[in-house]
Every structure is written in structure tokens, then in C-alpha cells.
Amino acid sequence: GQQHAVGGETKYWDIEAGDKRAADAAWSFTAPPDENLAPLAGRIAFTWNLVDQWFEEEEEVFVHARDPYARIDVLQSSSHVKIWFDGEVVADSRRPVLLFETHLPTRFYLPPEDVRLDRLRASLTRTRCPYKGIASYWSGVLKDGSLREDVAWAYRDPIAEMPKIKGLIAFYPQAVDRIELDGQPV
């Protein structure tokens, strides 16, 4: 075994499946010196990014396990949201969906019909969120024809708990000129 800074002597295992092998992807503490870690002795842990997929029951989990203390609330709104990009209004909606997520700013998801899609180009970027699923991105087309990468995103097929944001578009506040909610900057 090897020595872990907190857990003491640690044993590692490789994982093999088919023609794939992940070295040292599983590990356990042999006899942790800290009594608070004693219940972990002999239990096996897996390094998150060394396996292909994680599941909670039958549902795939992305990036990390869901925090039971994190919350996401998604609410229909009649607030007026306007988004400026490169000096022009690129989104104007009176039917946004507001997403409130623990420790993050409010996100405004807008119907594509309320967004100037001619000012967006599909990006190859994809990210994963354990609470929402896989996001697809758009870059903003500047007046000179150049692109500002990944200014907006959408969850085309969000996880089952997030149906209210399916196919709606949200913008990064730092990537656009400004976002207004009922006439006030956000």
C-alpha cells in the first residue's frame, strides 16, 4: 500500500472492463489513524473521473454526486427580460423561466422565439451538470462577423427533474452587454 496524507496506509486497485483499464481507480484505507475515518477502513472508493459513468439507481449522474443541500427552483414568470449583445437587443421576453440555484445567480431561460437566433451560432461546447443534465452552447455573432464563444446555452434534453427549462436559452451575464429584468439591470 501507499500512504495517504489523512487516511494512512491505502491500498489501490485497477479496474478492468472489456478492453479498458483504469489504473488505481479504486482505493481503500487499511487502518486510518484518525478515529473519525475508522468506519471507512476496508470500504472501497472510486476515483470519479477514472470511470466512464456514474449512476444513482437507474439514472446517470454527471460531474459529481448531487448535494442533498443544494436546491434548484424553476419558476414561470411574466417579468420582462431584455438582453443586449454587441450594442443590440438580442433577446426580449415577457415569458422567461427563472432558475434559482443554491450559490449561483438567477438564470433567465428564454423561449427561442424571443431570441434573435441570427445572432447566435451553434458551438461544439458541451458541459454536464449533475442537477440539469447536458448543456449545448451558442457563440454570439458580433457585428464584424467574429464570434464571442459560448455566450448562451440550453438543455435540449434535461434530466427528468428539470422539464421546465427544456429547449430554453440562457445567457452568461459576463458575455453580453447587459441583462435587464423589468427595466432594471441585473
Describe this structure in words.
This protein is an all-beta fold and 186 residues long. It has 2 domains: 51 residues, Metal Binding Protein, Guanine Nucleotide Exchange Factor, Chain A (Beta Complex), CATH 2.170.150.40; 114 residues, Domain of unknown function (DUF427) (Metal Binding Protein, Guanine Nucleotide Exchange Factor, Chain A). It contains no helices and 17 strands. It has a 4-stranded antiparallel sheet, with no helix packed on it. The protein starts with a strand and ends with a strand.
Structure described in brief:
By secondary structure, this protein is mainly β. Helices cover 0% and strands 48% of the residues.
CATH topology of the largest domain: Metal Binding Protein, Guanine Nucleotide Exchange Factor, Chain A
**The top level CATH class name of the largest domain:** Mainly Beta
CATH architecture of the largest domain: Beta Complex
Task: Give the overall silhouette.
Answer: elongated
Beta-strand percentage range: over 45%
Mind describing the biggest β-sheet?
Answer: 4 strands, antiparallel
- The CATH superfamily of the largest domain turns out to be Domain of unknown function (DUF427)
Helix-strand topology string: EEEEEEEEEEEEEEEEE
Number of domains: 2
- Count the E strands: 17
Could you tell me the radius of gyration in angstroms? 22 Å
Total number of helical segments?
Answer: 0
Which stretches of 5+ consecutive residues score pLDDT under 50? none
- Structural class call reads mainly beta
Overall pLDDT: 93
What share of the residues lie within helices?
under 10%
Distance between the termini: 53 Å
Strand order of the largest sheet: 1-2-3-4
